[in-house]
Amino acid sequence: MDFVLVHGTTQSPASWARVATLLTAAGHRAIAVDLLTPEDLPVEGYAQHVREQYGGERPVVVAHSGSGVLLPAIAEALGARALVWLAAYIPDFPGGKCLRDEARTMLEPDWIGVDPTADPAKASEFLFHDCDSETEHLALDSLRLFDPAVLAAHPAGPAPEIPSTVIVPTRDRTLKPVWQRRAARERLGVTAIEIDAGHCPHVSRPAEIAGILTGRA
């Protein structure tokens, strides 16, 4: 099975290193793609950018955090067999709102306006508070900002007709867990899988995430 791993808005592909290693050890292929480009692209442009980095067929596509905006387009471009939303923004498929319209509803108030890439202490507080010291050091090395305007402004289209799994970290300090659960149910028609972790469980709980991915695939 192929897994295409899509980083979020505050980390590079390096954030997937441990999960990718575990998936490979279990006999799968894991490709951590890089969304960063020299210039901002439309949503379809980022989907094609991912397509250029992946040469296989019908992968499971896993998106973290703000890259949930891009997940439907990436899935379509790759012919994905399944989607996984990991502590991810789930677009407002029923109502057509964009992420910017929903920010104050879905984000924890203390997270709004924080740039963790400019402040390691804030990164530790909001993203990596559940990591041990060694993992936290590795996580801080993976910090990188990816925040093109299209993520905030892109209106939701129709819901993807591809099986979805939603993983909700119950100690998320950035994206409200209660919002994630409700969005999974109302926007994708699924019950979320909950994990005792912060916003980046692929960093802090890689074995558990790899286990969920292989089990659901």
Automatic annotation (TrEMBL):
Q: Tell me where in this chain the AB hydrolase-1 domain is found.
A: 3-210
InterPro entries, alphabetized: AB_hydrolase_1, AB_hydrolase_fold, Sec-Metab_Biosynth_Hydrolase
Quote the Gene3D superfamilies the UniProt record gives.
Answer: alpha/beta hydrolase
Q: Which SUPFAM superfamilies match?
A: alpha/beta-Hydrolases
Listed A to Z, the keywords are: Hydrolase
Q: Pfam families per the record?
A: Abhydrolase_6
Q: Which GO terms describe its molecular function?
A: hydrolase activity
User: What highest taxon heads this organism's lineage?
Assistant: Bacteria
Q: What is this protein called?
A: Alpha/beta hydrolase
The organism is Amycolatopsis regifaucium
